[in-house]
Design brief:
5 helices; 136 residues; elongated
């Protein structure tokens, strides 16, 4: 959620230990966890009541509209052509060039996504997986 690494977490804990003190740190941590839990519950309730969850799901489905043609050479993936997509031009272009190359090189869809085009990368990988599942 916050994309905090191990060392950042250690620094945060050390600062908290210095500011709050070792005696009160468990109490502060518990109350912070309770507050976060309540906040998440409120956000979920607002999403549910306002229908934002449905809009979010519709947006995810829109980004998944990628159609590909996968050409196989025996058991190897020989070529991937993007037939159509509804992604934003310019932003998604690196994914449409790098992901097919990576999939062909690895002969697998277990490849890293392109930074800055994560959803496009995911949609493209899902489309290739779908095409491969129809071949087998």
């Amino acid at each position: 959620m916050f994309n905090i690494g191990f060392w950042e977490l250690i620094v945060i804990l050390l600062v908290a230990l210095l500011v709050v003190g070792p005696k009160d740190l468990p109490k502060v941590a518990r109350s912070l966890a309770r507050g976060i839990k309540r906040l998440r519950a409120m956000v979920d309730e607002v999403k549910r009541e306002s229908g934002l969850g449905e809009v979010e799901q519709e947006l995810k489905q829109v980004t998944r509209e990628v159609k590909v043609k996968v050409t196989m050479d025996g058991d190897k993936i020989a070529k991937i052509e993007v037939l159509s997509h509804s992604e934003t031009a310019g932003i998604s272009d690196p994914a449409f060039t790098q992901i097919p190359e990576a999939i062909i090189a690895a002969n697998s869809t277990e490849v890293d996504v392109v930074t800055g085009a994560t959803r496009t990368s995911d949609a493209l990988i899902a489309a290739v997986n779908d095409a491969l599942s129809q071949v087998k």
